[in-house]
Amino acid sequence: MKLLYATASPFSAKVVMAAHHLGLDIDLEPVDTVKPPEALLAANPLGKIPTLVTDDGLTLYDSRTIMHYLDRLADDKRLYPHKLEKRAAVERMEALCDGICDAVVLVVYEKRYRTPETWHQPWVDRQWDKIRRGLDYLDENPPQLKKKLNAGHFALGGLIGYLMLRFPGEWEEHRVRLARWPSAFEEAFPAFRTLKSHV
Ligand SMILES: N[C@@H](CCC(=O)N[C@@H](CS)C(=O)NCC(=O)O)C(=O)O
């Protein structure tokens, strides 16, 4: 199996951390989405990462589809609990963290893909509103680290790693519990230190 990914991508980091946790062996193939290579477009018409290509040539996206695939592949560990309510809560945590990542990525892309004359601040403010509300919720309701790790933890790890990379010092203030979460997560999952978003 190979994963088309980028080291800075939060969705890629989520999948890479989850695969590491499950003990799955995946070849990592870095791609530049600014100029998506033919291999990425052939595997995913959206030209987005992460995209997984299995040994049988099955191509999978987006990150949540990949997470569910990896979950079923693994022998002894699970990313999603079996019980209905617990599973729904983990899936919702992942959806929230991924949704915040979507908003952060849009803020980053506004500057990357538009010229300064066309930057549209109300649109960026709207994304920051989503980011702020989402982070405030996570500060109140961080996923507990006492029990088994699940997809929600890796999704939050992907998000926090991306915030640490792109907006250091801009999200921690007044969010004491969330600001402490990365070091607590690293204790439970030491690979966070190297697998989180980086350039
Ligand atoms: N919903 C997607 C989001 C993936 C995504 O937005 N990836 C970004 C990189 S972090 C990307 O590929 N951007 C390139 C583009 O939008 O053209 C997922 O969960 O995989």
From TrEMBL:
CDD domains for this protein: GST_C_6 (cd03205), GST_N_3 (cd03049)
A Pfam cross-reference name: GST_N_2
Enzymatic class: transferase
E.C. number(s) listed in UniProt: 2.5.1.18
GO molecular function annotations of the record: glutathione transferase activity
Domain GST N-terminal: 1-78
GO annotation terms (biological process): glutathione metabolic process
Protein known as: Glutathione S-transferase
